[in-house]
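quick one, 221 residues, struct below
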Amino acid sequence: MNLIFLGPPGAGKGTQAKVLEEHCGYRQISTGDILRRHVAEGTPLGVEAKSFMDRGDLVPDDLIIRMMEHELVNPAEVILDGFPRTVPQARALDALLVSHKRGAVAVLFDVDFDVLTERLTGRWTHPASGRTYHAVFNPPQIPGIDDVTGEPLIQRPDDRPETIRKRLAEYQEKTAPLIGYYDDPGDPRLVRVDALAPIADVTRQLGVLVNCAALLPVASA
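---
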């Protein structure tokens, strides 16, 4: 089952994608990562994308879709994180998935925006790996230090309250309509998870959804 992760910044999509990659054989696809790779490798698609980026323009939807098509040749189930961002992109993605005889379910990381703002303003990140911590909800073993490497954590400028409010407003305006698109009563393809639950509980919700044995709770005797 291919997954499309929906939800505002900081809802935990990246954290759960890493868990599904590690334990369930999924492959996370990020639009930004794809763009950077094509540009760095100088592929024809990368050269085309760079011409837009060098001018400060957005890379067109059709070019992003062509990059996505390259990714879908790989038979592994995928997690799309950060794409689609708009309903037209979702329609184009649907056509692409149909052409490759693949389906997908949209997973909404459901959150209360006030609680999410509190969560984000306490977030600390390990730059090299992307691991995130929170001063209250998920603190590192030693304040300011990554649990795995012992390297310093940073607080990113975009975790400031004013920046977070702007990002959430932008999400509501541009991306939230996707919820209605995937939750169409005639063709419901949306599953909601409580993203404010403890991380392990969110993981279990996803484990049940994708029927991944490694994440399913052990039945009591």
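The longest helix spans residues 161-174.
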